[in-house]
Design a protein that fits this description.
240 residues, alpha/beta, Rossmann fold, 7-stranded parallel beta sheet, 7 helices, 7 strands, NAD(P)-dependent dehydrogenase (Short-subunit alcohol dehydrogenase family), SDR_fam, oxidoreductase activity
Length: 240
């Protein structure tokens, strides 16, 4: 039987944790790369801060070791999910370069670095899934660095599709709508009235659950007919 491995970033909570639970239920071994561990039983946690461009200097060996332990034959069906991200409140007329660089590093550059570490272990049937955002193709005010990084992630996914042609590895960018996560709640300062207002802009009049996003990401990872696709999973947003 072909070994099955999920490598995910930012899997300690929210969408990432739900993705881990979904893949574990399907018999995947799981490696989570994040600053804080995922408490789900059976997960191999690698404590790495990928917002530092030098994380590979010590982290690369840890990743290789964990992947080798999970794939004794050297390769297998590997699903790589780029989920870790950071969101700051900032605007184009005031953003500081060092803050902009940190967001781009974690949200865009780190996925490219991790791709190069994991690709040698990815047999045909593997997948790379980028977790984008509704803001991968539109924008809102005061979220300049996040919007820019999520637009760039779509470009990275499309480049991935073209560069890996013929290798039997497919890729997609799943763009969650407003999902009830710790990141969203922190971004609005825990203000329930703001969350209710956001939900009113969705055709189902509610926020998305993390488990729903996990199911969408699982589909994108296991259905190669979706390749090079930007998949909006947002319950239908009301355009105003």
């Amino acid at each position: 039987m072909t070994a099955k491995l999920l490598v995910i970033t930012g899997g300690s909570k929210g969408i990432g944790r739900a993705v881990i639970e979904r893949f574990l239920n399907d018999g995947f071994a799981v490696i989570n790369i994040s600053r804080s561990p995922c408490s789900v039983e059976g997960v191999v946690n690698l404590a790495l801060d990928m917002s530092d461009i030098r994380w590979e200097e010590k982290g690369g060996a840890l990743v290789h070791s964990a992947v080798s332990a999970a794939l004794p034959t050297g390769s297998g069906q590997v699903v790589l999910v780029h989920n870790a991200a950071i969101m700051h409140k900032d605007s184009v007329d005031a953003i500081e370069a060092k803050d902009f660089s940190r967001v781009l590093q974690l949200n865009v550059v780190a996925p490219s670095q991790l791709n190069q570490l994991i690709l040698p272990a990815m047999a045909p049937g593997s997948a790379i899934v980028y977790v984008g955002s509704t803001l991968s193709e539109k924008a809102v005010a005061n979220t300049c660095s996040y919007v820019t990084s999520k637009h760039a992630l779509v470009g990275l996914m499309r480049a991935t599709c073209q560069d890996l042609a013929g290798r039997g590895i497919h890729t997609n960018c799943v763009c969650p709508g407003f999902t009830d996560t710790e990141m969203l709640r922190a971004h609005v300062g825990g203000d329930q009235s703001i969350l209710d207002s956001i939900a009113s802009g969705v055709t189902f009049n509610r926020l998305i659950e993390s488990q729903e996003m996990a199911a969408a990401i699982y589909a994108a990872a296991t259905q190669p007919v979706f390749n090079g696709a930007v998949i909006h999973a947002n319950l239908g947003q009301i355009e105003r």
